[in-house]
Every structure is written in C-alpha cells, then in structure tokens.
Amino acid sequence: xxxxxxxxxRRKAILSRxxxxxxxxxxxxxxDDPAYMHDDPPLPSISTGLKTFVGEESxxxxxxxxxxxxxxxRAARTAPAAASTSPFAAAGSKANAxxxxxxxxxxxxxxxxxxxxxxxxxxxxxxxxxGLTPTDVDPALPPMDNPLAAMLFPxxxxxxxxxxxxxxxxxxxxxxxxxxxxxxxxxxxLITMWxxxxxxxxxxxxxxxxxxxxxxxxxxxxxxxxGESSPLGDVAQILRIQVMPFFWAFTTLQIVLHSVRIxxxxxxxxxxxxxxxxxxxxxPPLPSIIxxxxxxxxxxxxxxxxxxxxVVGLGFIVLFSGWLAA
Length: 326
What we know:
Blueprint: H1 3-30, H2 48-54, H3 73-83, H4 87-96, H5 106-116, H6 147-152, H7 180-212, H8 219-228, H9 232-239, H10 246-264, H11 273-278, H12 285-325
Helix pairs in contact: 7-10, 7-12, 8-12
Region (Disordered): 1-106
Keywords: Membrane, Transmembrane, Transmembrane helix
Pfam family, one: GET2
C-alpha cells in the first residue's frame, strides 16, 4: 500500500472516531441513552453435529442484532440518591400516600365484629340489615366462596335447620325472649326446696321423735344446739336423730321440677357465638352431642343451686332457733 493510501485510511479512521464521540456527547446532552455505532458480533451457530447428537433441532429464530445500550448518566446519578434516602423519609412518604381501600366494606366489618363479640345477627337476613345489600353478601354462594355470608347468615344456607328424626338440630337457633314464668323458675326452685325443708323440720321430724319417745327438749332448743355445741356426740344425744325419707323427697322434687322445665321448653340452651358458628360445619354426631351436653350441664348447675338453697335454709333455721330458744 502506498503512503497516500495509508494516510487516507488514517484520516478516515480519525474522522469516524470523532463522529462516534460527537454522537455520544449529543445523545448524553439530550438525556437519551447513547448507542454504540458498531454492531455486536454475531452469535455462534450450533453445529450440525451437536444437533444430531442431541436428537432435536432448535426452532428458535436467531435474535436480531441490536445496538447494546449503555447505562444512562441520569439514571446513574439518581440511583445513589435513591439508595441514600433515609428510612424515616420513606416512612413519611408512605404515610402521606393515599390509604389502601380494604376488600370488605365498613358495614361488613361491623357485622363481622358483632358476630365475634356475642352480638351476631344470626336470625337476620341480608335484607334486614341496614346498609348491607344482597349484592354485598350473597347467601346462595357456597361457604368456601362466601365465608362472610356463612359466618353472618348461617341459616340462609340451611345451617341451622333441623337435623334428622331423633337427633338434635345441627345448630342452635337464637332463643326467644324469656317469659315471666321462665324468669321466675329459679325462685320456684328455691321456694320448693325451702317448703320441703320446713315440712321436715316443723312436722316430720317432731312427729318421728314423738313416736320413739321425746327427750323433753323443745323444738327450737334442739335446733339451736347445732349452733352452740361442737362435739357431734352431744348433738346426737340431744337431737336423737331418726332416719327420715329426706333424700327420696329431694330426688322426687328434682325429677318433677326438671320434667316441668323440659316439657315447658325452658331447657333450651344458647351456645356461645363462636360455637354456634362452628356447629353447622361439624360432622353429624358432634352437634347433637354438644347441644345435649350443654343441656346436661345446665341440669347439673340447677341441681347444685337447689342443694345450696337447702344448706342456706338449714343455716337460717339454726340461726332463728337460737334467737327463739334464748
């Protein structure tokens, strides 16, 4: 190559290099990402032997050659600034941002809280609740697709419907307001126990003592000895205790009182709210077992109340006997 040809090639190389630098400067000044003028080298093609060895041929087309972008100077300047932002500033920006809207409406949240705080409207329908339209809660949907309706309106899907014949219902319906007789039943129990105690103290015990031979001590004095004498032997000598059918009378009265409660419908129990919500989703034997177990617990509580009333009545008799004997 002659000297003039070499000089011409050198001049063209210098000019092309200068045009590349000028293009970089102009694109950086405009804020665009500068693009290299030269193209990336072509990707190596897969040899035919490798395709045959693998047993398949690639149907993916070769990606076109594009100018590789370089990082933007503006992005490079803003990245350290974003990284150096204080966490307190980030928290402040999040606080100033618009609040996130919940999935449930405010009315639905209130109904959910009422269900958890023992004020759930289990006997209501979606139409009877103010501000809650049927489109918000659709009881016709399955419980898995509509958990809010299954929790608030279980009777809409037949959750609290009656069970098979001979079994307790699957869930407990809300109890109606108690009647006057139902409110007076605890006083009826207490008055009945005290009347039975007065019958044995004032009539049955003196009659039995007179049949075996009285001790000459007055009625009130003998009962007052229970509050004055500590040795049990002396009390037994003074009272001359005789066997009386007190236990059988107490048992008979208990059977009568509980039968009246059962046949009058006063033995209905109201499970706790969370238990009432879970009852429809339990297997068939468990709801009846739970409801009947609550009824037996109620009967046991009433039995203990009646027994406590008898003990209190005996204490009053001993106290009043001491005053009358003095």
